[in-house]
Design brief:
The chain has two helices and no strands. The protein is mainly α and about 90 residues long. The protein has one domain (about 10-85).
Length: about 90
């Protein structure tokens, strides 16, 4: 099966995807910051408030996605630990 059909076949592919999502959120936040600055300079109060709300929501999303990415790193680390321990755990069969 292709990775485009199942982008989350592994923790690694999910980590990569979440990294791209985080990057996209950060780029969007920069654009919104510029839009907010322009609206403020033009004296557009309602647009400023709307951009402030969008910036806040993007920041909350960034925090949650970053936490999810850290969890995926933890899962990758644990997977590595389990794979290293598997051969030694079967030595009791002798």
């Amino acid at each position: 099966m292709s990775s485009s059909v199942h982008p989350f076949e592994s923790v690694d592919s999910a980590h990569d995807y979440v990294g791209l999502l985080l990057q996209s959120i950060q780029e969007t936040a920069l654009e919104i910051g510029q839009d907010l600055h322009e609206a403020h300079a033009a004296g557009e109060t309602q647009r400023c408030q709307a951009f402030q709300l969008v910036a806040y929501k993007l920041e909350r999303l960034r925090v949650h996605i970053a936490a999810g990415r850290r969890l995926l790193v933890d899962l990758r680390t644990l997977r590595g630990i389990f794979h290293r321990e598997l051969p030694t755990s079967t030595s009791d069969d002798q």
